[in-house]
Amino acid sequence: MGALTLTVVAVAPLVVGVAAPAGATTTQSVIPILDCSYKTSLGMYDMWFGYDNPNPTSVTVAIGSSNEFTSGGGVETNVGQPTTFSAGTHSDVFKVTVPQNVEWILQGTTLNAPGGTTCSSDPGAAPFKGALMVFPSLNCDFTDKGTGKTNSLFGYTNPYSTSETVAIGSSNNFTGTPSQNAGQPTTFSAGTNASAFVVTHTGGINWFITNNNVSTPAKTTCAQNPVPIVSDRLGSLVVVVLFALAGLGAFAVLRRRRDLRLLFVGTTARR
Predict the structure, then answer these.
(1) For residue 9, which phi and psi values (nearest 5 degrees)?
(2) Taking 90 as the threshold, does the pLDDT of residue 185 lie above it?
(3) How confident is the model over 140-180, as pLDDT tens digits?
(4) How does residue 250 score in pLDDT terms, banded at 50, 70 and 90?
């Protein structure tokens, strides 16, 4: 009998693929874009933001850990960024005004701002979104030689497009005055208000607000007194005059009564 020959044939395993459902696609992440940033004369940053959505349809990302702004200065997580992102690349979608660096976290991508391209012109202020910032100003002083008192005219600049509120306290106070509340505002309208309020004082004073401060004396003398200064001597004189007028009034009443009484007596005697 001849030798038995065994032949082994290797057979590749059969792989059965499962076809993806027709029309199914993988959604790609939306990429945040800093179009440009502009540093103002006050040191604030006005910035334009946009995004790139590489998907053929819109993508929705709610405000939260996948779509938020962060900073070390208290900026809100929602500064006005969109939550619905249309397909394609979109520039100058929303503005942000901040006093320091911020980050936009969007679907796993962290974008640091400011940086990159400088805007050719200031985009303008954006609404206030949590990072308190008011810039105080001291416009002029007026000193009354008779009393030695000084009226100081204060103003401020709010760098946002909407008002912001700073309560009297650690972030809005005066020193060198009887009280930390020297009549300064607590609500600050957008823009610059050069003549916001006047403080009358006899020594150096300082206004501290949102990590900015301004102290007397002013570099400029007011052309005229911003508000009347009441002299102590003038006040005493006013009191004396008032008493004198009251005395004259009382004297006139008494004299009138006497004349009436004499008239009555004379009329009775003739009868």
Answers:
(1) -110, 120
(2) yes
(3) 999 999 999 999 999 999 999 999 999 999 999 999 999 99
(4) low
| The two structure tokens encoding residue 136 | 């105080």
Decide: 245 and 238 in contact? Cβ < 8 Å: no
Contact in structure between 164 and 76 (CB atoms under 8 Å): no
The model's pLDDT over 93-118, given as tens digits with 9 standing for 90+, comes to 999 999 999 999 999 999 999 988 99
Cα separation, 173 vs 177, whole angstroms:
10
Q: What are phi and psi of 123, to 5 degrees?
A: -65, -15
Phi first, then psi, for residue 251 (nearest 5°) are -60, -40
Q: Mapping DSSP to helix (H, G, I), strand (E, B) and coil, where does residue 195 land? A: strand
- Dump pLDDT digits (tens) for 32-45: 999 999 999 999 99
Establish how many alpha carbons lie within 13 A of residue 210's alpha carbon, considering only the half-sphere containing its beta carbon.
22
Long-range CB pairs of 24-32 (<8 Å, 24+ gap) are 25/55, 25/56, 27/55, 27/59, 28/54, 28/55, 29/106, 29/107, 29/108, 29/109, 30/54, 30/55, 30/59, 30/61, 30/85, 30/106, 30/107, 31/106, 31/109, 32/104, 32/106, 32/109, 32/111
Of 106, 126, 99, nearest in space to 33 by CA: 106
Q: Which residues of 170-203 are buried (b: 16+ CB within 10 A; e: fewer)?
A: eebbbeebeeeebebbeebebeebeebbbbbbee
- Tokens representing 3 are 């030798």
CB 156 within 8 A of CB 192: yes
Instruction: Give backbone dihedrals phi and psi of 239, rounded to 5 degrees, phi first.
Output: -60, -45
Asked if residue 125 lies in contact with residue 160, where contact means CB atoms within 8 angstroms, the answer is yes
φ/ψ of residue 240, rounded to 5:
-60, -45
Distance CA 218, CA 152 (A): 8
